[in-house]
């Protein structure tokens, strides 16, 4: 089995290693601000996906026991805490610093922005394919299933109905699973399930200190749903990566391929949703003749983005070998 580019090969316990992991988290956070792009995809590209899933899956009764007994060093080692904290810092900084910029670009330069991410993800599929050492019938079927699942999710009409506490819990559990899967945007899943706007609204009101008991209850249910989904699904995913690596990686690659369709640059906002907020706008594919911008520019942006990924991968592999 050819392992993923191993994040443990980065100098651990050092300022350099911490800086690299903060940068990895920053890239994940930046990706999570883009509809159709998953932070899990970035983790897979940058080589720390397996390590991240393993760290999350180690939150269990033993870890709780270590905290109860005051064995903090063992707890930190078990959860790879220095790595996960550096990653978390980067994710928060990435989301906080780029969310506004990405919103502006998607609103005013949607086609060009999609072209960049189309090139990034397309090249990333080529890079990540090396994680499958042998493309037998199993991995091929897994990749096809991954493509079908990603395409099916992207075509589900968004729901805008009233939500119960049970539905909120289930939605949170599903969305957090999507966030750690390459190719599926957790925020997009929340939008499809009809809970994106209510949750974002509650968070905004919370930070404005407009707080009441009902809001605390709903935010608590959502948080517990996220925690449940993350801990439960990460264990399954960690098991699959350890015992069925080729099949699992091929399925994840299929999810990435399926997500590319949502990033196709030749899209336009439907007239019916053009006046809505960005998160509620719907897009349709258009032909090159219908696009009133520069097709050459779109192609150039996608090509440059793809080259950046390929060059970065080459530099990273050489640095890993030499290190």
How are the secondary structure elements laid out?
Elements: H1 15-32, H2 39-46, H3 49-57, H4 61-68, H5 72-78, H6 81-108, H7 110-128, H8 137-154, H9 165-179, H10 186-192, H11 196-207, H12 213-243, H13 245-260, E1 267-269, E2 283-285, H14 295-322
Antiparallel strand pairs: 1-2
Pfam families: VCA0040-like
Keywords: Membrane, Transmembrane, Transmembrane helix
Protein name: DUF368 domain-containing protein
Q: What is the CA-atom radius of gyration, in angstroms?
A: 20 Å
The major β-sheet equals: 2 strands, antiparallel
- Mean pLDDT score, rounded? 79
Helix content: 55-70%
Strand content: under 5%
Shape type: globular
Q: How many separate domains?
A: 1
**Total helical elements:** 14
What structural class do the secondary elements suggest?
mainly alpha
End-to-end separation: 21 Å
Q: Ranges with pLDDT <50 over ≥5 residues? A: 1-10
Looking across the biggest beta sheet, what order are the strands in? 1-2
Work out the number of β strands: 2
